[in-house]
Amino acid sequence: EVYPERETWTRQMDFIMSCVGFAVGLGNVWRFPYLCYKNGGGVFLIPYVLFIFLGGIPIFFLEISLGQFMKAGSINVWNIAPLFKGLTFNLMLICFGTPQVLNISEGLDDVGTLNWELILCLLAVWVMVYFCVWKGVKSTGKIVYFTATFPYVVLIILLVRGVTLPGAYDGILYYVKPDWSKLGEPQVWIDAGTQIFFSYAIGLGALTALGSYNRFNNDCYKDAFVLALINSGTSFFAGFVVFSILGFMASEQGVDISKVAESGPGLAFIAYPKAVSLMPVAPVWAALFFFMLLLLGLDSQFVGVEGFVTGILDLFPGKYYMGYRREIAVAICCLLCFTIDLSMVTQGGMYVFQLFDYYSASGMTLLWQAFWECVVVAWVYGADRFMDDIARMIGYRPFPWMKWCWSFITPCVCMGIFLFHLLNYKPLTYNNVYVYPWWGEVIGWCLALSSMLCIPVSLVYKLAGAKGTFRERWEHLTKPVWGAHHLEYMAPDTDIKSLASLSPGTEENKVIIFESVM
């Protein structure tokens, strides 16, 4: 079987901008500011920053470096330990189930009719996604220069305008003023940890796919820290924009800020329209803001499709597609997503949207995925072994903190938050008023379990189907399947151990064991 030569990014900045476009999304604009408001203002930053280093950066780096080392997307990347390829299907189902919606009906049992205006908008978006993705990362990497940077321009404009409005200072003070009594509440820490996994787009497989298009000796360790700083910095910056405008709204309406601050979509689609309607030249501000929201969703959407398609294409040799395999795969993926999304543009579409959002790509499923990623790499493949592999790529060994996180800290954090969510599970509601019917809960749990059960079911199935003793089965099924670039450039272990004392800051000491091969 002959596989086509793997693309690489034209420039490394293409990779950085694609990751920014994917990870920095709508949640940074509306969810993080609300969580700060809800959980004690500035005091929320303490657990938030702590979880960045305990979970966010380690797994972010793990997914990017794993994709870069294996030169594969979210499916074939787990050739590093084939027994755990159930992780691939978990990733694909989570990514595919992420919802990308109004005239609300009475409930889930009365979804009403399709909204044709929204159908046309939805079709236009998926057509744009198709033409952004169909030619691969060399074209996608150029588009994100606009889609990933324009939102920052709008946020800066809105901040400059927002801080000049009456009441803006009170809104910002409400945002950052710490309420120290909140620091002892478990929910504050759980919200901080969940937000990290949500906003960093961990566990969706797209970061692995993006990393697979890097040069083999790209310094992904440095990239992980840069991208984490951009992601969290954007969230914090967006909070100033949001609450300066909320302060203005509260001042204009003569109410407390807590009365105008809403969570989730309400903050973006209800509070902001009210705010811009009170501004001078309101249509201009409204157009800028909603165009920004479109781009935030659009680049996350087409990079997510890129990750899904990359995983699928890695499974099949190019000879089956007569040179059009990517175009066909992208078209099928976009068509399926469009069909699923039709359920969200009915009059009851918001109920369907929240059902997908709450269960299919929820905090629990992402935490479950991240936990198993750490376990497989650190305990099945070997944390020290993977650190050696990274040294082969980038020329130096990352700080041992990464190994400690993958082996002990991050899995404990993931499982701790996962169990907290499970033990404190509350039935899904809409706007704290509408309670979903029992069969809606069943559908939701089916969505969640369809991805979460892939890992244990696949593991048991493969072990049961193999021959030999349990030890022989385990050793056979966890033996990595190497690519040609690994076998050709594999360095002796003694060369790798000599890199242990090197640091990224000493360029003259940096040794590149592998050259770029794809």
From TrEMBL:
<keyword id="KW-0813">Transport</keyword>
<comment type="similarity">
    <text>Belongs to the sodium:neurotransmitter symporter (SNF) (TC 2.A.22) family.</text>
</comment>
<feature type="transmembrane region" description="Helical">
    <location>
        <begin position="114"/>
        <end position="133"/>
    </location>
</feature>
<feature type="binding site">
    <location>
        <position position="23"/>
    </location>
    <ligand>
        <name>Na(+)</name>
    </ligand>
</feature>
<feature type="transmembrane region" description="Helical">
    <location>
        <begin position="328"/>
        <end position="346"/>
    </location>
</feature>
<feature type="binding site">
    <location>
        <position position="21"/>
    </location>
    <ligand>
        <name>Na(+)</name>
    </ligand>
</feature>
<dbReference type="Pfam" id="PF00209">
    <property type="entry name" value="SNF"/>
</dbReference>
<feature type="transmembrane region" description="Helical">
    <location>
        <begin position="145"/>
        <end position="169"/>
    </location>
</feature>
<feature type="transmembrane region" description="Helical">
    <location>
        <begin position="404"/>
        <end position="422"/>
    </location>
</feature>
<feature type="binding site">
    <location>
        <position position="28"/>
    </location>
    <ligand>
        <name>Na(+)</name>
    </ligand>
</feature>
<feature type="transmembrane region" description="Helical">
    <location>
        <begin position="284"/>
        <end position="316"/>
    </location>
</feature>
<feature type="transmembrane region" description="Helical">
    <location>
        <begin position="12"/>
        <end position="30"/>
    </location>
</feature>
<feature type="binding site">
    <location>
        <position position="24"/>
    </location>
    <ligand>
        <name>Na(+)</name>
    </ligand>
</feature>
<keyword id="KW-0479">Metal-binding</keyword>
<feature type="binding site">
    <location>
        <position position="299"/>
    </location>
    <ligand>
        <name>Na(+)</name>
    </ligand>
</feature>
<keyword id="KW-0472">Membrane</keyword>
<keyword id="KW-1133">Transmembrane helix</keyword>
<feature type="transmembrane region" description="Helical">
    <location>
        <begin position="189"/>
        <end position="213"/>
    </location>
</feature>
<dbReference type="GO" id="GO:0005886">
    <property type="term" value="C:plasma membrane"/>
</dbReference>
<dbReference type="InterPro" id="IPR037272">
    <property type="entry name" value="SNS_sf"/>
</dbReference>
<feature type="transmembrane region" description="Helical">
    <location>
        <begin position="442"/>
        <end position="464"/>
    </location>
</feature>
<feature type="transmembrane region" description="Helical">
    <location>
        <begin position="83"/>
        <end position="102"/>
    </location>
</feature>
<feature type="binding site">
    <location>
        <position position="231"/>
    </location>
    <ligand>
        <name>Na(+)</name>
    </ligand>
</feature>
<feature type="transmembrane region" description="Helical">
    <location>
        <begin position="42"/>
        <end position="62"/>
    </location>
</feature>
<dbReference type="GO" id="GO:0005332">
    <property type="term" value="F:gamma-aminobutyric acid:sodium:chloride symporter activity"/>
</dbReference>
<keyword id="KW-0812">Transmembrane</keyword>
<feature type="binding site">
    <location>
        <position position="199"/>
    </location>
    <ligand>
        <name>Na(+)</name>
    </ligand>
</feature>
<feature type="binding site">
    <location>
        <position position="296"/>
    </location>
    <ligand>
        <name>Na(+)</name>
    </ligand>
</feature>
<dbReference type="GO" id="GO:0046872">
    <property type="term" value="F:metal ion binding"/>
</dbReference>
<protein>
    <recommendedName>
        <fullName>Transporter</fullName>
    </recommendedName>
</protein>
<dbReference type="InterPro" id="IPR000175">
    <property type="entry name" value="Na/ntran_symport"/>
</dbReference>
<keyword id="KW-0769">Symport</keyword>
<keyword id="KW-0915">Sodium</keyword>
<feature type="binding site">
    <location>
        <position position="300"/>
    </location>
    <ligand>
        <name>Na(+)</name>
    </ligand>
</feature>
<feature type="transmembrane region" description="Helical">
    <location>
        <begin position="225"/>
        <end position="250"/>
    </location>
</feature>
<feature type="transmembrane region" description="Helical">
    <location>
        <begin position="366"/>
        <end position="383"/>
    </location>
</feature>
